[in-house]
Model the fold of this input.
Amino acid sequence: MADFLQLLVAGLATGGIYALAAIGFVLLWQTSQTINFAQGEFVMVPAFFVLAAMKLGGVSFPAAMLIGLVVSLLVLGLLFKRLVVDPVLRHGVLPLVISTIALAIFLKEAVKEFYAADAQPFPAAWATTNLAIGSAVVSAQNLVIIAVAVVAVGLLQYFLNATRTGRRMQATAQNPGLARILGIPVEHMILYTFLINAALVALASFLVSPIYLAKFTNGETLGLVAFVAAIVGGFNQVRGAIVGGLLLGVIDNFVAAYLSAQYRAAIPLFLLIVVILVRPQGLVGRAEERTV
Amino acid sequence: MKSGWIAAAALALAALQAEAQQTVNMPIVIELSGAGAVSGTNFRDGAVLAIDEINAKGGILGRKISAPQSDTQSNPGVSRAQVQRAIDSNPYVILGPVFSGSVKVNMILAQQAEVPQITGAEAADITQAGNPYIFRTSFGQQMSMPKIANYIRDGLKAKTVSVLWVNNDFGKGGRDTFVKEMAARGIKVLADLSTESGQVDFAADVVKVKGANADAIFVYTNEEESARFLREARKQGIKTPLIGETTLLGQKVIELAGEAANGVRGHVGLTVDAPIPAVQGFRERFFKRFNYLPDHNGLKGYTGVYAVKHATERIGKFDRRLLAKTMHGLTIKPEQEPGILMEATWDDKGDIDRISFLAEVVDGKQKIVQILPKLGK
Done:
């Protein structure tokens, strides 16, 4: 029972990080039909913004995190949209997919070339103590990750559903043409989505890097799992990405502990195939019909 | 005009040939990216430091060392191609790689070309294949595991143990040797867990080794994975003694794992924290040059180059076959060659023997608690 509880908490913590990255996938797809295959690298890079600010700027860790967040908003939000998405998207989704794959390679190699090829220690912004719950020892770090992910998702849901800007963003996602006729500044709404995605990946990066260590390869697995989580949960629903992320995190830990550590990487893909065959709209996604 | 160009080309060729004759080619084929980047970068920097020192004093037999570097990307296939490229440049020796899986697939090329290869790899079977051109710079697992096993039996008085190892040639070789040594001492292995190279999430693995409730946990993974495991073990409040080899107690692991490394114990074949003045001097020179503290791989690269220098000066000429022959059975003492740092002996298979250490991480520093003599003494 103690093992079960520890695995569940660890899985939810991992899943929370997957969910943050998966939400970004969904948001970008919903508002701008952007499938960002550099999303994993987007989670990897902010940690290096922080480390570079500390190393080169000599600033404290909290200040470096703030700088990391701002640079992420600029580079992974604004510049990504203006320099990659806007010029390529008008030629179709496939060229954009290829462009984001190229961007992923570029980001990885740039970090390797200009910062380090080996793993770097990344400070934790919270205590690394443990809590004893019965015979189980639960990491405070994992609880903080779960709490931060829950709060971030809650705030996002509140923003999207209960604020004027959020509802305008939803209108843009549902029908950009009609939204434009109604006077909604569609371009601004799409830009906000990119900025939200940049903030979410920065948050995921700050949460995961103290555990995984900061390394240029970190995005490879994260990107794939987050993409699968978004599809498993439902690519057209933010709540689908949350469900998919948490589910994959928990399943990954239980499979590694009770079935096989060697095949754990295959489980998300296996789950993906099952969902596509049985419920292609995802576990909590909505079926969409298109006619010609 | 045409004859002028030909004359210029001939002069340039002659100049290149003259330069080639004035240098000795020792390519470094090493892991500079991928899972082995920590090990490879340390090995490379140690070798570069030694080469610069030797060149500053006039080189080997009056010829300066030229050491072009190539990255194996920690990939055995790439390493094989890089070793072939190095062989095509007519090297005197090849330095590296460190990863056992890479050395296993590329050492046959160096052997066929009769080029001595100075490796940092530790898998036991590398020197058992009858290759007369392979030479280690640190203990093979068949030398280090008995020392760890004795410590677990006599130092910890453990009756049971859990083993967590990385599923590559290095980890598999170490695990097999370790389990054999445990059986020979009547110590029961309660959990035997393989992990993947480059693995980032160790939550499930820590739960499993913790659940096995053994007297000690032996961890045999590469440096980055070791650090991630230690962080997770700390998160889950593991109290069982964590025992390992150099890849668990190395400087880079301590740096990456932070306070989670405190309390880790084990055997280290090479360490810059050794209470030996020559090693301390190397540590200072290395830090001054590269601005980070080296791990055991830095010592491997450094001493490997000096071993080649000493053996070459002993034979008095650049002869690859004679160099390999001379290094078998060779003992180099620091009085003869200060760069060797500690007395070292190579046997007829290319395995190295030297003193080693039992260590513990205390307050973020590796503390040597015992010096173990050479096995041959």
Observations:
- Chain B touches chain A at residues 32-34, 37-38, 41, 167, 193-196, 198, 200-201, 203-205, 207-208, 210-211, 224, 227-228, 231-232, 234-237, 252, 255-260 (CB under 8 Å).
- Chain B has two domains: 23-139+276-353, 142-268.
- Residues 23-139+276-353 of chain B form a domain with the Rossmann fold fold (CATH 3.40.50.2300).
- The longest strand of chain B covers residues 188-195.
